[in-house]
Design brief:
Length: 396
């Protein structure tokens, strides 16, 4: 058991707030370097270049690639897993460039999530320098998803494997719009529903047509009706298209469907209900009963992250470092959805910013690149102390 004196020595060895403030210009320079390499998910060369810079940043970590994803490690029996991603939603020709205005820094990925990567880097650097017992006493696994914005089944698998048995799993999505940490996230599932009917001249042979749009419209209404705010489940048909000309019965139509839910049971029930609705077509041609055909494509999904004891324990440690942090349950899904069952998990540790995914508007509050690095530094240190003092952070 580590005595109070040792803890005291470890925490007061240096002026933490002063350190993070005085190193802020260097952190900002590094953020700018990351931001100026476009790493739109589909820009594979840019994503790779970004991985190289990140690998360079974390000198002293062993680097390996898992597919296009980057994994950096330092071995140790009590492991902490840190999660970020390499990609952004901004295409190379987007025109959104680095811009500093007062307390804000704007740029593609400054908040989501390159600022988070810089916070993680600065906190680890400080830990290695000022609390080497904690840095050396823990094993580190840093995971950088190359295609987070598109959703990556391969990364989900990798993250689950690496998180299993870890002491803590911390993700660096931004805190927003204030000093928040993410303790829960909705799950999300996406589907593409394709309808194939039979075309016919709308004037002379209408009865031979099986109208794919009419079929799709019926399904859309049923899917929309699954929304139940009391159950915490929503569906959104975000895209619908079909047909070619007004004087032909349309042969094909499709819709993109998004399902969100707060708890895993409603999430699974929602998926079952969507599949059931899309099992059978209802529209047939009048002349010979030719039926529409349905195809439902199931895309990669994120199970809900529900609030749990492991997350709460980590949040309390974080609040011990910064008493002003607030817990937040967020509507968007994230990679933590894949890992929270494997290890105590907390998200939103990146800098405070907002308007993620908005061209010209995404920003971080410059000072929070320092305050959030201090938060992570303190959290790493306290995870180390609790792991050393007792067994593990409480599991649910
Ligand atoms: Zn992100």
């Amino acid at each position: 058991v580590l005595g109070a004196e040792a803890v005291e020595a470890m925490t007061s060895r240096f002026d933490a707030a002063g350190y993070f403030q005085s190193t802020l210009p260097e952190s900002i320079d590094l953020l700018r370097r990351l931001v100026e390499v476009n790493s739109f998910t589909a820009n594979e060369a840019g994503v790779r270049r970004n991985a190289e810079i990140v690998e360079e940043m974390f000198e002293g970590f062993r680097a390996r690639r898992e597919g296009e994803h980057l994994v950096l490690t330092r071995p140790g029996s009590r492991r902490v897993v840190l999660i970020s991603h390499l990609d952004t939603v901004y295409a190379p020709d987007d025109g959104f460039a680095w811009r500093e205005e007062g307390p804000r820094i704007y740029g593609p990925g400054v908040a989501d999530i390159k600022g988070g990567t810089v916070v993680m880097w600065r906190a680890l650097l400080a830990l290695r320098q000022f609390a080497p017992d904690a840095f050396e006493g823990l094993g580190w696994t840093l995971l950088f998803n190359a295609s987070e914005e598109r959703g990556s089944a391969g990364f989900a698998e990798l993250a689950r494997r690496e998180a299993a048995g870890a002491e803590a799993c911390l993700a660096y999505e931004p805190g927003y719009p204030a000093n928040t940490l993410v303790v829960a996230r909705k799950g999300s599932a996406r589907f593409t529903l394709r309808v194939r009917g039979r075309s016919a001249h709308s004037g002379s042979r209408h009865e031979e047509g099986a109208n794919a749009i009419v079929e799709l419209a019926g399904k859309i209404l049923k899917i929309a009706a699954l929304t139940d705010y009391a159950r915490g489940i929503t569906t959104n048909v975000g895209v619908a298209r079909g047909g070619t000309v007004v004087n032909a019965v349309p042969e094909s139509a499709e819709a993109l469907i998004d399902l969100r839910a707060k708890d895993p049971d409603s999430f699974e029930a929602g998926k079952r209900e969507i599949r059931a609705i899309c099992r059978e077509a209802e529209v047939r041609s009048a002349s010979d009963g030719f039926p529409c055909a349905l195809e439902l494509e199931d895309h990669h999904d994120y199970t809900p992250m529900v609030r749990n004891a492991g997350t709460d324990a980590l949040f309390e440690l974080a609040r011990g470092v910064d008493p002003t942090v607030e817990p937040q349950e967020r509507g968007g899904s994230g990679d933590v959805c894949h890992v929270w069952r494997e290890a105590p998990t907390l998200d939103g540790l990146g800098p405070v910013g907002d308007d993620c995914h908005c061209t010209g508007r995404e920003y971080v509050l410059r000072d929070t690149l320092a305050s959030r690095a201090l938060l992570s530094y303190g959290l790493f240190r306290d995870v180390f102390l609790s792991v050393r003092n007792s067994s593990s952070l409480s599991r649910f």
